[in-house]
Amino acid sequence: MTRIVSLLNEQNVFSNLKAQTKEEVLTTLIGSLKDEVTAEELEAINTAVFEREKIMSTGVGKGLAIPHGKADGINDNYAAFALLESPIDYKAIDGEPVSMVFLLVGPRSSNNLHIKMLSRISRLMNNNSFREKLKACNSSEKIVEVFKQEEGVYFGS
């Protein structure tokens, strides 16, 4: 199974993202994938994520949102993560503002893997001490390292 940390790098991880709205956050996170995919793939990802968000907010509570989507025309899973400079209204299920956003997109054809990855992200992000470790990070490198350590604890090194 693909490791979450293998999808994260300094280009798609933000330690202090300045954004006022959900749309700004999503646009920035999706845009951070531009070096990994073609322009057509990026457009497909953008459409998939925003369409999914229209169905129901991906603000899952505890200050976290996990926007996601399955897109035609892409062959791999892609992710991006942001700690927000200031919490934003995300229409989360608990009504609380969001300060962490984990984007996951994958090919429409691999539904099982997409669900497993979402489940893994949810399990990691539900851990209070892990979220506190992330909040303490002040660089993309530190965030990636914290994900690597935590994934090792949960899923073996």
Give the SSE string: EHHEEEEEHHH
Structural class: alpha/beta
Largest sheet: 6 strands, mixed
Low-pLDDT segments, ≥5 res: none
| Whole-number count of domains | 1
Instruction: Write down the CATH topology.
Output: Mannitol-specific EII, Chain A
Please explain how this structure is put together.
The protein has helices spanning 22-31, 39-55, 111-125, 128-135, 140-155, and strands at residues 13-17, 59-61, 64-65, 68-71, 78-88, 98-107. It has 157 residues and is an alpha/beta fold. It has a single domain (7-155), classed as Mannitol-specific EII, Chain A. Strands 1, 2, 3, 4, 5 and 6 form a 6-stranded mixed sheet that branches. Helix 1 (22-31) packs antiparallel against helix 2. The longest helix is centred in the N-terminal third of the chain and has 17 residues, at 39-55.
